[in-house]
Amino acid sequence: MSAPAALRGAVGFLTRLPVGHDEAGWEAFRAAPWTFPVVGALVGVLVALPLALPVGAPTAALLFVLAVYGVTGINHLDGVADLGDAAVVHGTSEDRRDVLKDTTVGVGAVLAVALVVLGLGTAGLALAVLPVGALALVVAAEVGAKTVTALLVCLGDAPHEGLGSALTGPNGDRDAGPVLALALPVILLGLGGSTTLDAVLALLVTLLVAVLTGLLVWRWARPNLGGVNGDVLGATTELARVAALHAGVVAWTQF
Fold first, then answer.
1. How far apart are the first and last CA of the chain?
2. Measured distance CA(64)–CA(126) in Å, rounded
3. pLDDT for 139-167, tens place per residue?
4. How many CB atoms lie within 10 A of CB 219?
5. Where are the transmembrane segments (predicted)?
6. Model pTM greater than 0.85?
7. Which of 183, 242, 239 lies closest to 207, judged by CA?
8. What are the extents of the domains in the chain?
């Protein structure tokens, strides 16, 4: 499968940008996890644009949240909701897996989604008053979130047939190398030519926190949900993005 086809498929699957959907693009993408961080950089640049508008921090933060879900869609939030309900279940791993199949929205789902959206909005508020580093941090967080999602695709196993198995099936441990090799140079592009040590360290912290967050989700999902399914991948992206943004703001302002 060609790299252009894989990238087209990745943009079509990971965003709502009008690039079209076809079987060739999907097949190329699902066997090319290296495309995740590349698309993450594109998404990061697009969703950071509202933070540069002269509209005041609260409005910029709201526009930032709308941009994130306007560009990426809300499908990943469904994973957050399902994992939220599963996390509050008192029972066996089988009970938690049954909750994922239940279409009823519980308190755990509502709380989980609310916390993610609140976390994204407050991160946007902090970024809006930090215009110099906003673009770099948003790009780094999005690349980090997509990178760790790709790592789960490479390292994880799906508990059943579905989206998880469609992505994990063609990939293995060896495919994690190219993902990691692309992540660092891609986030450094967000610096826009500034290569101060403090800025580079802040972006590294952002990337590292995103990866650690995703790995923690994976560690919880293996015994409790049986592995990596579509809900786990979606929730990983959302949780890693929020955690990375907050860590990045702290690092940028403290270094």
1. 43
2. 11
3. 999 999 999 999 999 999 998 888 899 99
4. 10
5. 36-69, 105-128, 134-155, 176-193, 199-218
6. yes
7. 183
8. 33-254
